[in-house]
Amino acid sequence: MVWATAWRTGGCKQVGSAWGKVGKERQIGGEVRVLASCAAFEMKRLIQILTLPIILVGFSLSATVMAWGMTTKEFLMPIVWIATIVAFILTFIKEKIGLTVLIVTCFGWLFLFAEYFGHFLTFEADKIVNWGLRLSAAFVICPLTLVFLSTKRLVKNKKLGFSVIATSLLIPLVGFGSNYDKTYSRTTFAEFHRVNDSTDSYLGRFRAGPADTRFFEIEMNSDEVKEIALTTGTYLVGHYYINNVKLNVRMNFSSIKEIELTKLNKVELENPIKWELSDVEGQTEYLKN
Q1: Do 119 and 143 reside in the same domain of the chain?
Q2: Which residues does residue 205 pair with via DSSP β-bridges, in sequence order?
Q3: Taking the model in full, what pTM does it have?
Q4: Where, by residue number, does the polypeptide cross the bilayer (predicted)?
Q5: Distances from the Cα of 265 to the Cαs of 97, 186, 189, 226, 238, in angstroms?
Q6: What is the pLDDT of residues 55-95, one digit of tens each?
Q7: Domains held by the chain: number
Q8: CA nearest 228: which of 200, 195, 259?
Q9: 206: nearest Cα among 239, 253, 251
Q10: Over the stretch 207-233, which tens digit does the pLDDT of each residue have?
């Protein structure tokens, strides 16, 4: 009888201990699920909050584009902006559909601003204050963050998620890489010194503006340019000056590689003149902006 009671008592303790472990595991599992649910909720709210600046600033951009837009890319902005609003609303109603549309619109913003962002990184990245002010930075950093968060929230397949995030990163990188060899058109003010019918060579001086102290100069011997200066230029204090001089500046990121003179006022040169940076003297930094 005593042995039986002891056996029963020990058995009850073992069973009670087992049920206690199960209860603790269930409790821990419930806490984990609650924490996961809270984390998912917070991520959803963060995604919605980060979408708001794009919607607000996108409204201003879209209104400007509708009034003054020139290119096809600019006219796509209002469409992407409207799609962003739709995605934002859908995240409250149908989260999966909303996040899917949001990822697509983020790719749209990245495509629209990749080139501007590349220009920003090339010429103004050293000015830290501009990082918070430039739209090109805002419309790349915010969409990248949203793509990352939305993909983490929506896509369960790791390979697919990695592909989406990698592609989103690739777009601004391509925009930056496009500045490796790029030609910009610049309009300057030109002066031609020692120009007359009897001279073969003369001095060409190219200023940022009529009264600007920034200029570069080079010895020239183009008969075509001399003829245009003599016939269309304005003579003033020993030299001829011409407005609206067009230069094509070929750059490797922020470094000038080549300068090409293509137009003097309204006259296109039949034989454009190219100079390497080492050929000219003076300041050429103003040609970068």
Answers
A1: yes
A2: 191, 217
A3: 0.72
A4: 49-69, 75-93, 100-119, 131-149
A5: 55, 13, 9, 13, 20
A6: 888 888 888 888 787 787 888 999 999 999 999 999 999 99
A7: 2
A8: 195
A9: 239
A10: 999 889 999 999 999 999 999 999 999
